[in-house]
Structure formats: C-alpha cells, structure tokens
Design goal:
Layout: E1 23-27, H1 37-41, E2 46-49, E3 52-55, E4 59-60, H2 64-72, E5 78-82, E6 88-90
Antiparallel strand pairs: 1-4, 1-5, 2-3, 5-6
Length: 93
C-alpha cells in the first residue's frame, strides 16, 4: 500500500468565516462612586482601585454576568460594547 503524499500549506475551514466575539468593558471613573456591587459579585472581572471600580480585563469574551453587574450598578458607570459591531450592550442612561 502506497502512502498518500503529505499535504502542504494551511488547512482552510469549511463554511463561513469564524470570528470570536469580544466585549469591551469601560468604567466611567467620574461617575463611579465605589459602591462595590460589581466587585462584590464578580471579583474576577472587577476590582476597586482608589475607591473606584476598574475592569480586571477591558476586553472579554461575552459573559452574561458582566451585563448583570453593569445593570445593577447604582450609578450606571459600567459600559459594555460589542467590539465587532460597536453596539452598546449596556450604556449610560
């Protein structure tokens, strides 16, 4: 039995182009009063620095818990944006 010749070059995925969805987390430090609800509920996503919330990472994969944290912020200081579309998922009122 003869061995098949080895393929050269890169493999191409079948079907549509695959993109990874990324969200941008921004905290308006002028508005944040440091209530800590975001940090208390999601310490892996938010931390308090000088009494104000700050994202641990500004770009993340979609995470419904982050949307909830932004919705529960009493000062509406957390903004979430879809990086691919620019759509504001949670924005200032």
């Amino acid at each position: 039995m003869e061995a098949r010749p080895r393929r050269t070059g890169r493999r191409r995925a079948a079907g549509a182009v695959v993109t990874v969805m990324t969200w941008q987390i921004d905290v308006d430090r002028r508005v944040c009063m440091g209530a800590g609800l975001c940090n208390g509920s999601l310490p892996d996503r938010f931390r308090l620095v000088d009494g104000k919330a700050q994202p641990v990472e500004s770009r993340i994969e979609p995470d419904e818990d982050v949307l909830d944290a932004a919705d529960y912020c009493p000062y509406r200081a957390i903004h979430i944006t879809d990086q691919a579309t620019g759509e504001a998922l949670v924005a200032a009122d």
